[in-house]
Amino acid sequence: MKAGRTLQELAIELDRQRTAKKDFIVTTGAMHMTAGDGPATLDVGTPETGIVPYGVNDIAHRQLGQFLKIPAPYYDRMRTDFPDLLAENVNGWLTRTPDTPRMLRTLDGVARAFLSDKYRRIDNFEIASAVLPIISSIDSATVESCELTDSRMYIKVVDPKTTAEIQKGDVVQAGVVITNSEVGMGSVSVSPLVYRLVCSNGMIAQDNAVRKYHVGRTNTAGDDFSIYRDETIQADDKAFLMKLEDSVRAAVSQAHFSRIVDKMREATEAKLKPATVPKVVELAAKEYGFTEVEGKGILGHLIAGGDLSLYGLANAVTRHAQDVPSYDRATDLEATGYKIITMAPALWRQMAAL
After folding, report:
1. How far apart are CA 317 and CA 287, in angstroms?
2. In terms of Cα–Cα distance, which of 159, 190, 187 is closest to 177?
């Protein structure tokens, strides 16, 4: 499992961001992109309210382009090579829908998300404040890894008391991963996690996840575009946060864990032919979206591990997750490992026939 921040570092940053971030409901007519010598800025406001320039991160750029229906490759090329042309395009399309309200989420003077005014804010600090006391109440549970990226918060927990043996000497432990995105990149999610001791791999069973999507009532704002916090939304959020305890405890339950372990044991019986291993990895790369570099790394770990089975392939993927620089991508690969051991029978037959 890829290392991230310590739990203390996560808590400090969450507390800092809680006071540093600002959210607004702004009509598209009160936004204007400016391209200077440096990166483009999004100027927000009116002469009456005052105009404030914000930097724009990759996520907000992508969401802005999607909203304006500017194709991503063209948007990215303008952003890199012709920022003046990008500003002209963005401003031209913004003026054609001047009265459309959008939620703009900012942090440290940077626009980090450009979202619907119906986007429901369920923030990382709230989620962490709800789940960490639950985790501490589970006698032996520990936070094995956690991180806060531009797109998501991750808290990965392992309970050493709940264990099983997949093969002789191959011990796994039950766990849970809690994720949330404040910027429209995913729901609040609680998923079972299996931690493999022999190589510190994590495998995430997303098909057993409990999710809460960031969709709700239309948000309203004051004259300065700042968002009012609706009392009904607050009550709904409180009720949801109370349900998190059941979800976290269910994710590390023996029943959930046993079902996943059974699938892992079945995958050990699905053997790969040694001569076809490179082709199997190539097919998996096409099916699961591995890059060329990732495919080479996964092949290397599969050969080094010596377990030429579907289980061995899944473990090669989760082992390679520790090598990629992005924590977001590492977590994607940990989830892909579980997708591999539960792949559709037709795909397995295709691999076995190579």
Report:
1. 13
2. 190
Antiparallel, parallel or unpaired: β 101-107 and 41-46: unpaired
> How many folded domains does the chain comprise?
1
CA atoms within 13 A on the CB side of 74: 11
> Which residues, at least 6 apart from 291, have a Cβ–Cβ distance to it below 8 Å?
285
Query: What type of residue is 28?
Result: T
How far is the C-alpha of 308 from the C-alpha of 316, rounded, in Å? 10
- Strand runs labelled E in the chain: 21-27, 31-34, 41-46, 50-56, 101-107, 110-116, 142-148, 153-167, 170-180, 188-196, 201-204, 210-212
Q: Is residue 246 part of a domain?
A: no
Residue 304 structural domain: 269-352
* pLDDT score for 158: 93
What are the backbone angles phi and psi of residue 276, rounded to the nearest 5°?
-100, 0
Q: Which two tokens mark 313?
A: 């392939």
Give the whole-angstrom CA distance, residue 94 versus residue 30: 9
Structural domain contains residue 294: yes
Query: What does the block give as tokens for 308?
Result: 């030429």
Rounded to 5 degrees, what angle do the CA atoms 239, 245, 249 make?
150
292 part of a folded domain: yes
List pLDDT tens digits, range 250-300.
Answer: 888 888 899 999 999 999 999 999 999 999 999 999 999 999 999 999 999
Of 199, 233, 215, 150, nearest in space to 334 by CA: 199
Note whether residue 33 is domain-resident.
Answer: no
> What predicted TM-score, i.e. pTM, was given to this entire model?
0.89
Give every residue of the chain whose pLDDT is below 50, as ranges: 217, 220-233
